[in-house]
């Protein structure tokens, strides 16, 4: 078994390559393991490297060392390969994916807890052929995340500064709603939407948790649809949305468990911006389906990706509330 540490030197606030190399060396020496470190050399590099490792057919354990973007790339690289499994050593800015593991998230920082940890499959979201581990969101939240990334390269602008600038550009100076056709299995909706987020995991955007009952291995994807509302209303309701209290505003938000969701931009409408684990995608049509148990994951003994999952507040097969339909 090979243990490969894929390090993104551009993740997080400072390069953690030296720290991770030291962890890998210590692990190899302590347990006589075949450990090696590979550095990503460009965006998308973790996907290329992890796929190449999986394609050898040899058993391999991959440690994605970075943030959610690096985890996303590694998952896309090894998905569907039975000989490959992945885990995460957090070295990014947000590392929202690991929040799904609750208090055990802290153990992922030390590979001593990981190298012989149990392996289990996770579901993924297939979005136009790209795979997403946690949340695939389209709409205002995705546009803000997309511009945060772009302003992140502006010299002299801090992380907080780029976030505030992005909110200003997308929220204050542009309409939040977009005219979309949304197909939920057979049901078709044509409306102005603020956002449509499909959840496999529970966290994004630095800790927002739109659907607490989303579990990463239950073969069910929860999708929350939020209609366009006046900006003041959106700002007032956003804290409840982020806390998973979508059920508090049934006249605006609806949660469904459709197996397939297709979002199509209406004629004249801009391309849809979709954010997959923090990585952006632009398209006229977004097709979201379950990729069941597609990636092998390993973690500390006893850990669960559903550690912080909440109970079902609403029946899973719930259709539109009457209030929503009347809007
Ligand atoms: N060698 C490289 N040069 C430039 N960019 C890279 C390189 N390797 C990876 N990347 C890109 O760095 C980006 C950021 O990585 P990542 O998301 O892992 O860290 P982060 O943004 O700090 O953390 P988080 O997403 O958890 O907030 C990814 O989009 C990835 O494609």
TrEMBL record:
One of its GO terms (biological process) is phospholipid biosynthetic process. SMART domains: DAGKc. Gene3D superfamilies: 2.60.200.40, Probable inorganic polyphosphate/atp-NAD kinase, domain 1. PROSITE patterns: DAGK. InterPro entries: ATP-NAD_kinase_N, Diacylglycerol_kinase_cat_dom, Lipid_Phosphate_FormReg, NAD/diacylglycerol_kinase_sf, YegS/DAGK_C. One of its GO terms (cellular component) is plasma membrane. GO terms for molecular function: ATP binding; ATP-dependent diacylglycerol kinase activity. Belongs to the diacylglycerol/lipid kinase family. This is BmrU protein.
